[in-house]
Recover the amino acids of this structure.
């Protein structure tokens, strides 16, 4: 796939200057005005989230009913055709009508928040609603949460634009909408606030705390008023007392970290390989993914009698949580089917979220550990298996989404079972720490890195905190132009000239693509003028290799560049010093310093 496809979803609209209405400016104080906007955002996002989830439930319910009434081969045809057509609709909308409707929605929200003052268009929310409702509602193995975040962030941003807020104020409306969307999607207001701080903001910002709180509460009230006072999962589990079996949260956390790392790496690897596929139109890929999902779901259904691979799958997950489904073969097939089906759908850039599949897979993993304990003769009943499934939901969420506080809070609020909080917290923290160790970069940030999107460039990032303490990955350049070590200077100059790029210096890669040094453009010209035909890689012996890790702070990188008297340094992976992630220059740091000096929203 051409590289431009990775950036297709990040073309940002400009902010049209507007003026705060006189009646709002004169009659109300500054705090009162923003309180009104927060309430409006909470109401609008709550209604949107509820409508979106009901649309998915109605569509998938209708498809299941049709398949059941037809029966036999026609039922199979319906269940295979539905996600194929849903994927086709998603692909056409995201490639021909609204590119922002593709994918999960959270990466788009993060990119827009950090790179364009959180400026959205309302049509993004509309087409995201349509595309995701059709794909998830038709049976695609995805969730509604990421699209809900995207829609609600766009709605809150647009409310800020309509009321003539300055750029920074419009940007501050994005976490307000994000929190309201999560609160209404799961009926989990506390988890919604944690998610905003952990995933979007990256810190506890007192400036946005009150606005997020107001919107979250309003959205949760809307959801509970329309759908009732209930948890997302109704559990029949007893109130557990502290017991030895709770130590099984440790193997649950380890298993979730291991499988979660495999899940993330598989998704990222296939996502990159999909870009190399030629000849298959972008609009057709989600349809092909839907066909594969349909066949996978039908196969699992025929073997197990359960259709949890399709759509959200919370009904089968609820059975596992209540200890009513404890057959290891069935659980393993549901887990494998959802794992494979989601990755296929996400690789095709289908419109849909990741939360539901992650919770589903985590629940199945926890249940398998619990059943394994029964086979080892530990002597507990199926309600303990259900409890371990609940713990697995949080552990896998922490391992994949990388929001440990959100992970145990969202499970608690979705189930309202407080007696499992301690093993849930222990397992989640363990899963999080091990997953970070095995794959340092979070899934969302890894996907943005693949798309060559650099977050947190905007001076408003982290408010008044010192931007020098940010990791250098926040300002580095991902488009790296490298010289080939096995080629001579003349051949390298021809390659660089044909690419239209001319830099002061270039990282040098050996025949295996590993970083082996840096050479300046002037040195290449000199070697060419001398008629040197030796490979460039052999001319690097006298040059010390100066590289920095992606997690090194901007302050330390500036010190290294000055101390080593170089203008640029390759940015390498924290776990593999020969793998190039990007390049940072003194110009990048100076540009950020100049941006900090400029007034924003004035």
């Amino acid at each position: 796939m051409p590289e431009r496809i990775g950036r297709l979803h990040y073309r940002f609209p400009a902010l049209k200057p507007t003026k705060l209405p006189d009646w709002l400016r004169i009659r109300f104080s500054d705090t009162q005005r923003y309180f009104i906007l927060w309430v409006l955002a909470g109401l609008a996002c709550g209604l949107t989230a509820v409508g979106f989830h009901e649309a998915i439930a109605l569509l998938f319910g209708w498809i299941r009913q049709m398949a059941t009434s037809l029966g036999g081969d026609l039922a199979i045809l319906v269940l295979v055709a539905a996600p194929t057509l849903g994927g086709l609709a998603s692909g056409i909308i995201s490639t021909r009508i609204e590119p922002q409707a593709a994918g999960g929605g959270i990466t788009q929200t993060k990119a827009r928040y950090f790179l364009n003052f959180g400026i959205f268009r309302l049509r993004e929310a509309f087409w995201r609603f349509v595309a995701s409702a059709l794909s998830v509602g038709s049976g695609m193995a995805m969730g509604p949460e990421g699209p809900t975040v995207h829609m609600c962030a766009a709605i809150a941003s647009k409310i800020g634009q309509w009321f003539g807020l300055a750029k920074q104020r419009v940007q501050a409306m994005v976490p307000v909408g994000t929190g309201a969307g999560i609160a209404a999607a799961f009926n989990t207001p506390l988890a919604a606030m944690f998610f905003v701080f952990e995933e979007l903001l990256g810190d506890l910002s007192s400036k946005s705390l009150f606005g997020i709180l107001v919107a979250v509460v309003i959205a949760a009230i809307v959801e509970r008023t329309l759908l009732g006072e209930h948890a997302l999962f109704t559990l029949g589990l007893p109130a557990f007392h502290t017991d030895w079996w709770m130590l099984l949260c440790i193997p649950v956390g380890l298993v979730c970290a291991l499988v979660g790392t495999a899940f993330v790496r598989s998704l990222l690897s296939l996502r990159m390989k999909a870009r190399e596929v030629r000849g298959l139109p972008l609009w057709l890929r989600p349809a092909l993914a839907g066909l594969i999902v349909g066949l996978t779901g039908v196969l699992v259904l025929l073997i197990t009698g359960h259709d949890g691979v399709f759509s959200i799958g919370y009904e089968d997950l609820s059975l596992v949580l209540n200890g009513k489904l404890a057959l290891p073969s069935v659980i393993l097939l549901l887990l494998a089917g959802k794992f494979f089906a989601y990755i296929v759908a996400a690789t095709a850039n289908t419109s849909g979220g990741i939360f539901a599949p992650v919770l589903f897979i985590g629940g199945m993993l926890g249940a398998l550990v619990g059943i394994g304990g029964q086979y080892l003769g530990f002597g507990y009943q199926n309600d303990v298996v259900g409890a371990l499934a609940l713990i697995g939901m949080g552990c896998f969420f922490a391992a994949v989404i990388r929001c440990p506080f959100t992970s145990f809070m969202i499970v608690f609020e979705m189930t309202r079972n407080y007696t499992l909080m301690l093993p849930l917290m222990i397992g989640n923290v363990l899963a999080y720490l091990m997953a970070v160790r095995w794959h340092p970069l979070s899934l969302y940030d890894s996907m943005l890195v693949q798309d060559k999107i650099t977050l947190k460039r905007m001076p408003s990032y982290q408010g008044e905190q010192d931007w020098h303490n940010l990791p250098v990955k926040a300002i580095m350049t991902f488009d790296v132009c490298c010289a080939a070590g096995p080629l001579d200077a003349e051949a390298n100059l021809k390659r660089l000239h044909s690419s239209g790029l001319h830099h002061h210096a270039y990282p040098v890669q050996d025949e295996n693509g590993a970083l082996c040094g840096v050479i300046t453009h002037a040195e290449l010209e000199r070697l060419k003028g001398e008629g040197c035909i030796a490979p460039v890689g052999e001319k690097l012996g006298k040059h010390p290799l100066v590289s920095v890790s992606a997690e090194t702070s901007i302050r330390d990188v500036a010190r290294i560049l000055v101390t080593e008297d170089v203008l640029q340094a390759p940015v390498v992976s924290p776990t593999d010093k020969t793998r190039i992630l990007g390049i940072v220059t003194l110009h990048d740091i100076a540009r950020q310093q100049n941006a900090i000096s400029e007034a924003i929203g004035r």
The chain has three domains: 3-227, 244-450, 467-597. The chain has a mean pLDDT of 82. The longest helix spans residues 30-70. The chain is about 60% helix and 5% strand.
